[in-house]
């Protein structure tokens, strides 16, 4: 924190000095001091990041190098060569390359911290294409056309705004999706947002006589560099690229409204400008619409798939026992209710483990859970089609089966279970099984057949012996 405070204070003084000193003085050294000061800050962040999680910082470091080269060329053109501005010059290549690397760094953060958040990346692209389309068509293109800007200048402005909008979308995704709000991520988001503002303002605030960009727009870039340096020096910076919470995607009304708005922005704005006979980039509208529609459809399909998987998972949780994975009592009752529609040769076996409580008391609940899992695995092994094994509750299991010889087949399997030595907490244990059998009768309800099977099980339990099968028919 002391290093962060020192850096923030020094940067704030330099930005204030740049803003307050008269424009005719040589203030380029202040600008370069601020931009160069970010480089060691990013190097410190790179060293703090755990091995294997440094790619984002390597990309950001490369971006800062390109930015500084571009800024140096820009200043050299203005100060040494007497150009009115460095915009549209060779410097733009380095500045645009730096912006692309910043986007790459943000996407690495999305992939690593967001646990390969493909949805977040798609959202970032949608945001970039939609916002850039509307900014370009409604604001930037008319302004640049009025300035007689060169094609190279127009391409540079468009690319920078597109890349910065995508970067901002990616960082906002990380910020909004995470329960833990990391200060470095917020500062990175601020830096990119201010830089995007600087790019747009720099394209608009131009002296019509000289073509020079308004000097105050440089302050936006200085603030962005300062926020980036503070993000790199903030103590929890090492956590920025480490896996965070898995982003939750939900096909909500708000998300559908967002996607619909992003898809409609360019056509609406472009169509409105055509109606009022204002200059419109029809090619851009066509391209952006052609890009956005499939992206939005893919995003909705992914969200719908996520919702479907979540519903299936909830259904499994509601109908399965969390310990053994067997169908629970609710699923058993539903299946038995359906099976009673054709009760011929239908039988229910109500099983209760003998000797389970002593194992649970002597070895602990974890050992008891281990024993229940072993019993469940044995009972469901080689299960016939149409048969159902469920955990009714506690150490009780219920089996629903069909067929004339089905009860004897399952009784043999349970007999083998009672004869086995099972493992619980590394200890050999033996259990017995008391089984009550009830055959379906015409007009039976689920309660009728389960009650008879339960009562028969208690009859069988009267003759219980550890390591044996006790079976009674009710």
From TrEMBL:
<keyword id="KW-0472">Membrane</keyword>
<feature type="transmembrane region" description="Helical">
    <location>
        <begin position="118"/>
        <end position="136"/>
    </location>
</feature>
<feature type="transmembrane region" description="Helical">
    <location>
        <begin position="58"/>
        <end position="78"/>
    </location>
</feature>
<dbReference type="InterPro" id="IPR043128">
    <property type="entry name" value="Rev_trsase/Diguanyl_cyclase"/>
</dbReference>
<feature type="transmembrane region" description="Helical">
    <location>
        <begin position="218"/>
        <end position="235"/>
    </location>
</feature>
<protein>
    <recommendedName>
        <fullName>GGDEF domain-containing protein</fullName>
    </recommendedName>
</protein>
<feature type="transmembrane region" description="Helical">
    <location>
        <begin position="282"/>
        <end position="301"/>
    </location>
</feature>
<dbReference type="InterPro" id="IPR052163">
    <property type="entry name" value="DGC-Regulatory_Protein"/>
</dbReference>
<dbReference type="InterPro" id="IPR000160">
    <property type="entry name" value="GGDEF_dom"/>
</dbReference>
<feature type="transmembrane region" description="Helical">
    <location>
        <begin position="90"/>
        <end position="111"/>
    </location>
</feature>
<feature type="transmembrane region" description="Helical">
    <location>
        <begin position="256"/>
        <end position="276"/>
    </location>
</feature>
<feature type="transmembrane region" description="Helical">
    <location>
        <begin position="187"/>
        <end position="206"/>
    </location>
</feature>
<feature type="domain" description="GGDEF">
    <location>
        <begin position="344"/>
        <end position="474"/>
    </location>
</feature>
<keyword id="KW-0812">Transmembrane</keyword>
<dbReference type="Pfam" id="PF00990">
    <property type="entry name" value="GGDEF"/>
</dbReference>
<keyword id="KW-1133">Transmembrane helix</keyword>
<feature type="transmembrane region" description="Helical">
    <location>
        <begin position="156"/>
        <end position="175"/>
    </location>
</feature>
<dbReference type="InterPro" id="IPR029787">
    <property type="entry name" value="Nucleotide_cyclase"/>
</dbReference>
<feature type="transmembrane region" description="Helical">
    <location>
        <begin position="29"/>
        <end position="46"/>
    </location>
</feature>
């Amino acid at each position: 924190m002391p290093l962060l405070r020192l850096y923030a204070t020094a940067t704030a003084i330099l930005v204030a000095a740049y803003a307050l000193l008269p424009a005719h003085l040589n203030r380029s050294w202040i600008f370069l001091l601020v931009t160069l000061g970010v480089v060691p800050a990013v190097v410190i962040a790179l060293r703090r990041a755990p091995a294997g999680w440094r790619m984002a910082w390597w990309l950001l470091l490369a971006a800062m190098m390109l930015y500084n080269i571009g800024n140096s060329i820009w200043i050299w053109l203005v100060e040494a060569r007497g150009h009115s501005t460095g915009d549209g010059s060779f410097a733009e290549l380095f500045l645009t390359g730096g912006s692309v690397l910043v986007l790459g760094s943000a996407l690495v953060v999305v992939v690593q911290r967001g646990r390969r958040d493909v949805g977040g990346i798609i959202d970032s692209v949608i945001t970039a294409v939609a916002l850039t389309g509307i900014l370009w068509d409604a604001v930037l293109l008319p302004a640049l056309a009025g300035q007689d800007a060169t094609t190279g200048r127009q391409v540079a402005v468009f690319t920078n705004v597109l890349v910065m909008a995508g970067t901002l979308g990616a960082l906002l995704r990380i910020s909004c999706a995470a329960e833990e709000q990391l200060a470095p991520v917020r500062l990175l988001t601020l830096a990119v947002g201010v830089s995007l503002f600087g790019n747009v303002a720099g394209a608009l605030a131009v002296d019509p006589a000289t073509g020079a960009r308004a000097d105050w727009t440089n302050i936006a870039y200085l603030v962005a560099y300062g926020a980036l340096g503070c993000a790199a020096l903030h103590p929890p910076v090492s956590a920025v690229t480490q896996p965070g919470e898995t982003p939750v995607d939900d096909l909500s009304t708000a998300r559908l409204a967002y996607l619909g708005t992003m898809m409609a922005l360019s056509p609406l704005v472009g169509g409105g400008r055509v109606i009022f006979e204002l200059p419109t980039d029809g090619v851009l509208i066509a391209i952006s619409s052609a890009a956005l529609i499939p992206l939005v459809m893919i995003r909705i399909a992914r969200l719908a798939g996520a919702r479907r998987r979540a519903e299936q998972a909830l259904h499994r949780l509601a109908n399965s026992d969390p310990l053994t994975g067997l169908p629970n009592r609710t699923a058993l009752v539903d299946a038995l209710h359906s099976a009673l529609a054709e009760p011929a040769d239908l039988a229910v076996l109500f099983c209760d483990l003998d000797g389970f409580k002593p194992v649970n008391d002597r070895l602990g609940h974890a050992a008891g859970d281990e024993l229940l899992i072993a019993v469940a695995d044995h009972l469901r092994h080689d299960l016939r089609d149409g048969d159902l094994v469920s955990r009714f509750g506690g150490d009780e299991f219920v089996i629903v089966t069909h067929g004339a010889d089905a009860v004897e087949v399952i009784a043999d399997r349970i007999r083998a279970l009672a004869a086995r030595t099972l493992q619980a907490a590394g200890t050999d244990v033996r259990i017995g099984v008391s089984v009550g059998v009830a055959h379906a009768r015409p007009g039976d309800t689920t309660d009728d057949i389960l009650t008879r099977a339960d009562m028969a099980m208690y009859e069988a339990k009267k003759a219980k012996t550890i390591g044996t099968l006790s079976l009674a028919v009710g």
